[in-house]
Amino acid sequence: MTIAIRMLTSLTTIAIFVAVSLFALPANAENDASIIRGAKLYDKWFAVIKAEKPTQNHPAWPAANTKKKNDVTWRCKSCHGWDYQGVDGAYGSGSYLTGIKGVNAMAGADPAKIVAIMKDDTHQYSGLMDEADFQDLAMFVSKGQIDMRKYIDYSAKAANPADAKLGERYYASLCAQCHGANGDKPDDMKKTLAKQLGNPWEVLHKILNGQPAEQMTALRVLDHQITLDLMAHLATLPTEK
Ligand code: HEC
Ligand code: HEC
């Protein structure tokens, strides 16, 4: 190798290192809080900020999908999925099929770039949320995505097997005060937690990040094995109220 090539190689390495470390924010409570809030905005931003629900379809919602309409078409998760993989993930079929790609390729991206995407002609969120909301959303997309294929068996539509006995103890300690021993509370929750497991991607997202506009705990910073053990326990609970 000539010296010139070697220098070029090390310069490239340095450039990559600088680019990566520029966006690698420290793991601290402030960033965790931003990511968790961003994840809830991704779920249902208008509930989090108590804005009026959009009354018409999002401009990027494909006309071919008539199964969903109005406010639901404005939730990030409706186009990009609970697993963040869009058409390549769980929304590759079913009533949320839009053909739209996921946000997973933007994991690690510069948050400013993600904010710009939310305000572009495709998305048109400008004016609907504050700068702090866009920042939290971008933090979630850049730093908060997990690869759900590691935790969920897509063909079985179920979380990977885990320790339900341990999950029962976690549940008693972390969840039962709001959801009741059987997972059928609060009363206005339409489906029991066991029934919700029909969509394991949604349950995983909610256990890690909490429920928009509710006081629910977010387990994101704990080992994800705890969430899997909890899901194994939920599967043992009644599916009907
Ligand atoms: C109605 C559907 C729809 C909704 C809702 C939606 N998006 Fe998108 N999004 C798209 C489409 C379509 C693209 C692809 C645009 C393109 O490639 O030109 C996209 C692309 C993206 C990308 C770039 C992905 C990549 O790899 O290039 C990001 C990031 C993104 N959206 C974030 C969000 C966030 C955050 C929200 C919620 C605030 C959101 N989107 C809501 C339709 C939607
Ligand atoms: C402080 C109260 C509180 C705690 C603690 C709590 N939750 Fe929740 N959770 C809620 C509320 C309220 C809702 C919204 C219920 C509804 O849909 O009406 C919710 C929603 C959910 C949902 C989504 C249901 C849906 O309708 O989409 C899941 C799944 C869930 N919780 C699981 C858990 C698990 C597992 C734990 C323990 C790790 C937990 N929650 C702890 C209050 C709580």
Explain this structure to me?
- It contains 10 helices and 2 strands.
- The chain is an all-alpha fold and 241 residues long.
- It has 2 domains: 117 residues, no CATH class; 86 residues, Cytochrome Bc1 Complex, Chain D, domain 2.
- β1 and β2 form a beta hairpin.
- α2 packs across α5 and α2 packs across α9.
- It is globular, with a radius of gyration of 20 Å.
- It starts with a helix and ends in a 7-residue tail after the last helix.
Give a brief rundown of this model:
This protein is an all-alpha fold and 241 residues long. It is built from 10 helices and 2 strands; from the N terminus they run αααααββααααα. It has 2 domains: 29-145, no CATH class; 149-234, Cytochrome Bc1 Complex, Chain D, domain 2 (Orthogonal Bundle).
Order of SSEs: HHHHHEEHHHHH
Radius of gyration: 20 Å
Multimeric status of the protein: single chain
Molecules bound to protein:
heme C
Low-confidence stretches: none
Strand order of the largest sheet: 1-2
Q: What percentage of the residues does DSSP assign to strands (E)?
A: under 5%
